[in-house]
Every structure is written in C-alpha cells, then in structure tokens.
C-alpha cells in the first residue's frame, strides 16, 4: 500500500511518525473515514466540513487546504487502485521536542497528517445488510465531547470486544437510560412508521451518514423524530438500525438477546439503505 505522511507518498513500511507525536502519547488528534464506491469518494465535503469543526474545537490548524485534501484522497485511491473501500485520515497535534501536557506552539510544531486506504471489495453488498446485526447494551462512560471525532477510541474498542464475547456484533451505549449511539455508528429505531434518532448535541458524533439519511428520509416523506429514545423503547421497536460511513445503513435485529420486531431486517431500514446507496453513488466525486 501507498500511504501519505506529511506531504509524502510512501510505501506503508517506509512511513514514519515520531514517538513524541501527541496522537501516539495522548490521543491528541482527530480523524475521518470516507468511503469509496466505484473509485469515487462518498460525501467528501461532509467529512471535510466535520474535520474543520473537530480541528477548530481543539484549537488545531489544518495542515492542508480542502482542495489539497481532496487531491490527496484521490491520489491515494488512484495509486492503490481502490475500487471499493475506505480512506482513513488522521491529523494529530504533531511531535513536540518532549512530552508535555500543555499544547505546543502551533507555529513551532506542525500537525502530523496521515492518510491510508483500506480495500473492502463488495463494501456495498455486505452480507450483514441482509441478516442484520446483533447488539448488546453497555454504559456510555466516554467523555462529554463525543461530537469531536478524536482518536480516543479505547472504550468503543472495548465495547466491540464485550459484544464479541457475547456472540454479538456491536454495542449500543446507554446514558441515563437513553441510547446515545453505537461504538462506531449512530443509532435509530422505527416505531409505527416513525424513524427516531437522538438529536445532535455534544453527546454523540454528528454522523455524516446520519445527516444524509435524515435528508433522504425527509425527501421520501418518511416521518423522523429527532429525540432521545430509551433502551426499553428500542427493544420494543418495530425496527432498529445504525448508520456510518463504512456500513451505510445496517439493520439491527437483536438487542441484549431480545429480537427487534420480527427479528429480521425491516422494510424501513432496507428502503433507506437502498436510497442512501443510490444517491451516494450519484453524488460521489
Ligand atoms: N458515532 C460514532 C461514535 C462513530 O465513531 C461514527 C463513525 N466514525 C459514527 C457515529 C458515524 O459517523 P459517520 O456517519 O460520519 O461515519
């Protein structure tokens, strides 16, 4: 694989980052994952806008312009012959001369920018979309700025492991009885034809797929309620699903061992997935 590090395209085994990089020492960095379908980037602008927001919330500067970022994404897709897959982008606060809690002066320490691709043949035809996934619920013990897409992913990673240990695919996180989101996706339920999802706040990541799906749902005259929902409501719902850039719209068929609705993927999730994939392919650049 060819990867990108601080202005250079290199074979992955020649790419280097300092041991003093604050991303490595302190998870002081942000990331984005953009999907690639038929060699084109899905919702690049959405990811670029959220990246800028994450950076500004952490008083970090973008090391490249938006146009340059698009060029780097495209160059990596081309150099790696990527048809279907993902482009991972990470920007950290760089590598000061020594470890220190205080932020370094950004004029002296430039951010570190790394991008690489992940090939996922058949990304849009994942078998799980037909069968649905099973989730467990876990306490949401993450910090209070989940709207910033930082690389602090230890708890979501542990959540995935807790799910796997129970023979499930993912975990939904719960705070004060209400579902916040999945470990790496936004969560939804469907009850009596209405789609319910938690509103945007500092409690959840503002998913790029979420924004697109809610827009398409509105265009298709589907009813959407942006409000928190409880775990109990979710277990009693007609359908449940999650959205993310890498899984698009993915049905959830079981929560803590309780089947959701019929226990099979439902029509609303299936329809949204179809619309999302169709519109995303059309708009991809
Ligand atoms: N919530 C969390 C916690 C996530 O990690 C992700 C994916 N990175 C999402 C939601 C979905 O966001 P997006 O649709 O932009 O991939």
Quick recap:
The chain has helices at 22-26, 44-57, 66-79, 128-131, 154-165, 208-219, 231-235, 267-283, and strands at residues 2-5, 8-11, 29-37, 40-41, 85-92, 112-119, 133-139, 170-175, 178-182, 186-191, 194-197, 223-226, 239-244, 248-255, 258-259.
Give a written overview of the molecule.
It is a single chain. The protein has 285 residues and is α+β, with helices and mostly antiparallel strands. The protein has two domains: 2-122, Aminotransferase class 4, branched-chain amino acid transferase, N-terminal domain (D-amino Acid Aminotransferase, Chain A, domain 1, 2-Layer Sandwich); 128-283, D-amino Acid Aminotransferase, subunit A, domain 2 (D-amino Acid Aminotransferase, Chain A, domain 2, Alpha-Beta Barrel), CATH 3.20.10. It is built from eight helices and 15 strands. The strands form two sheets. Strands 7, 8, 9, 10, 11, 12, 13, 14 and 15 form a nine-stranded mixed beta sheet that branches. It has a six-stranded antiparallel beta sheet with strand order 2-1-6-5-3-4. A hairpin with a 2-residue loop joins strand 3 and strand 4 (40-41). The model has no long low-confidence stretch (mean pLDDT 98). Bound molecules: 4'-deoxy-4'-aminopyridoxal-5'-phosphate. 4'-deoxy-4'-aminopyridoxal-5'-phosphate binds next to helix 6 and strand 13. This is Probable branched-chain-amino-acid aminotransferase.
């Amino acid at each position: 694989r060819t990867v990108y590090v601080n202005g250079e395209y290199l074979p992955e085994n020649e790419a280097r980052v300092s041991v003093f990089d604050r991303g490595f020492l302190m998870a002081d960095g942000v990331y984005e994952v953009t999907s690639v379908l038929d060699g084109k980037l899905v919702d690049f602008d959405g990811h670029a806008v959220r990246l800028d927001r994450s950076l500004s919330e952490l008083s970090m500067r973008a090391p490249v312009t938006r146009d340059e970022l698009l060029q780097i994404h495209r160059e990596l897709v081309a150099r790696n012959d990527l048809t279907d897959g993902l482009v991972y982008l990470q920007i950290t606060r760089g590598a000061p001369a020594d470890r220190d809690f205080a932020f370094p002066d950004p004029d002296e320490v430039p951010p570190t920018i790394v991008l690489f691709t992940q090939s996922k043949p058949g990304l849009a035809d994942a078998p799980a979309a037909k069968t649905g996934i099973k989730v467990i619920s876990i306490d949401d013990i993450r910090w209070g700025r989940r709207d910033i897409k930082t690389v602090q992913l230890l708890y979501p990673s542990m959540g995935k492991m807790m799910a796997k240990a129970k023979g499930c695919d993912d975990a939904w996180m719960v705070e004060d009885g209400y579902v916040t989101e999945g470990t790496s996706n936004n969560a939804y339920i469907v009850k009596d034809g209405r789609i319910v999802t938690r509103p945007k706040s500092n409690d959840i990541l503002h998913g790029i797929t979420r924004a697109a799906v809610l827009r398409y749902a509105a265009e298709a005259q589907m009813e959407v309620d942006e409000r928190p929902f409880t775990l109990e409501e979710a277990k009693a719902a007609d359908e449940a699903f999650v959205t993310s850039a890498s899984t698009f719209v993915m049905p959830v068929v079981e929560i803590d061992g309780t089947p959701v609705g019929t226990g099979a993927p439902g029509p609303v999730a299936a329809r949204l997935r179809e619309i999302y994939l169709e519109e995303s392919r059309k708009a991809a650049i």
